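Morning!

This is the sequence you dropped in the shared folder:
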Amino acid sequence: MAQMLMGAIAAGFVVAGLFFFRFWRQTHDRFFLLFAASFWLEAMNRVALALLEHADEQEPLFYLVRLIAYGLILAAIWQKNRTRR
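The structure's back. Tokens below.
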């Protein structure tokens, strides 16, 4: 049951990433590309959690992937809101 839920969550992340990727293709705004990459990283993280036999969400490697994904979101927001000269 846990693997099925992880798969559903990963599928949701992939769909969200595709949603942002579609907007990036229309606007070529890096904001949308970074959001898409962040969601796809989260999807890969969930797939790895589901497929690895003794995987635990509390392992530092999985937190590192999340940190990178959230860092991409923060970088996208910062880049979008910085003042242009």
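Headline: The first helix runs from residue 2 to 27.

More detail when I'm at my desk.
O.
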